[in-house]
Amino acid sequence: MLQLFRRYGVLILLFAHLIPGLRSGIAIPAGVSQMPRIAFGGLIALGAALRATLQTVAGLFLAPPRGASISTLSLPGAIIVGGLAVVALGWAGARRKRGHPPSYP
């Protein structure tokens, strides 16, 4: 099982958030395989964002309209996501500039 996590750990962490029950238990194999904390945190954040996106899209198509328009939410959401992307890229660039290699392949 540990070899499976070492080989496919990135994909497992990304998609573990989509399966109830795996969300809370995925930290155990990541810790046993000594995955760097930064890589683990980033992958968990991306997995959570993937889950939230899929739930939101499902809600848009499956839920009845409640009078709120999605167009009113798109500009603030784009600003927030764009700002987070700029911060993440700036942090990664500053880390690389200081001579730190990427944390996890």
Structure description:
This protein is mostly helical. The protein has 2 domains: 1-63; 67-105. 73% of the residues lie in helices and 0% in strands. It has 5 helices and no strands. The two termini are 20 Å apart. The relative contact order is 0.10. The mean pLDDT is 77.
What Rg do the Cα atoms give?
Answer: 17 Å
Rounded mean pLDDT score? 77
The shape, in one word, is flat
Oligomer: single chain
Helix content: over 70%
By DSSP, the count of extended strands is 0
DSSP summary: helix tally: 5
What structural category characterises the helix and strand content?
mainly alpha
Q: Which residues sit in consecutive blocks of at least 5 with pLDDT less than 50?
A: none
Spell the H/E element sequence.
HHHHH
Which range does the strand content fall in? Answer: under 5%
Domain count, please report it: 2
Mind summarizing the main beta sheet? none
Topology:
Blueprint: H1 2-15, H2 22-25, H3 27-32, H4 37-62, H5 71-97
Helix pairs in contact: 1-4
